[in-house]
Each structure stands twice: as C-alpha cells, then as structure tokens.
C-alpha cells in the first residue's frame, strides 16, 4: 500500500534535482515517502541569498527579493521529520513556514518551505546588501560545502552572524 503524502514541501536550494543534497530526496522517494510534483515559484517575492559555505537561505520577508524558483514535492509525515532533521530545525538553522507557490502548470498550492531562522534571516539579508537571487543555480552550488566537509569550530550560521 502506498504511503500517504499529505504535506507539500517547496525546495529551492540544495535539495532540488541535480543539486548537492538531492540524494536525500532520492532516498525518500525510494522509501515511498516523496513524490516530485512540479517545478514552481513563490507567489510572492522573498529574499533568497547564499550564506557562509554557500548555503542557500530563503528569508521570511515577503515583498522583498524575487519570486523564487524551486520544486514542489508531496511528502509523508516521516519525510517531514527527516527533512526537519536535515535542515536543523531544532537547532534554529531553518524554520518550516507556509508559502504559496505557483506550479509551472499554473496551479497555486500551499506548501511549506525551509526559511532561514528569524534569529538571523534579516541580518543575513542586510549583510548581502539586500540583493537576492531568483533561483539557486549551478554557480551558487559550486560554492556549497557539504556538512561533512565543513571545517570545525565556527560552522554554524548562528556562530558566524550572531556574536
């Protein structure tokens, strides 16, 4: 029997197809915890910036930035737990927030996206000169450092931006 996939997740960075952490999405798909729905973009503009170690962050400042391109996935409750763990929700790196996205098929859907935590999101946006991306692409992915390859010590966005 197929697992229920009641949650929609908007992926805009390293979890997208062809990007450094898409292996997690593939694993979730293999375990019948995820189905790719469509490519999409946010209905409202949001800042999308790359922080330290090339990590992409969507920032919860609607009306700033651009309508951000990404992908929508239907995922199981178990997948949400794994994604929350991967995104460091309990450590305050990201928070999962509702966002309306428009699929390339023209459908508006309510999904959830992983936004840079409010403790540093606006600080990072200002530090980046309030200039954001429309899409996390190949050039940005070249700067990304996987978790296991990050140097010890100050490797958390919170450590770097908030003294």
Question: What are its keywords?
Answer:
about 160 residues; alpha+beta; Hypothetical upf0131 protein ytfp; 5-stranded mixed beta barrel; two-stranded antiparallel ribbon; about 25% helix
How does this model look, in words?
By secondary structure, this protein is of the alpha+beta class. The protein has one domain: Gamma-glutamyl cyclotransferase-like (Hypothetical upf0131 protein ytfp, Roll), CATH 3.10.490. 23% of the residues lie in helices and 28% in strands. The chain is built from five helices and seven strands. The protein has a five-stranded mixed beta barrel with strand order 1-5-2-6-7. A hairpin with a 5-residue loop joins strand 3 (48-50) and strand 4. The chain is globular, with a radius of gyration of 15 Å. The protein starts with 6 loop residues before the first strand and ends with a helix.
Short précis:
The protein is an alpha+beta fold and 163 residues long.
Topology-level CATH name: Hypothetical upf0131 protein ytfp
First-to-last CA distance: 50 Å
- Total of DSSP H or I helical runs spanning 4+ residues: 5
CATH superfamily: Gamma-glutamyl cyclotransferase-like
Share of helix, binned: 10-25%
Main β sheet profile = 5 strands, mixed, barrel
Question: For the record, what CATH class applies?
Answer: Alpha Beta
Low-confidence stretches: none
Radius of gyration: 15 Å
* Beta content: 25-35%
CATH architecture: Roll
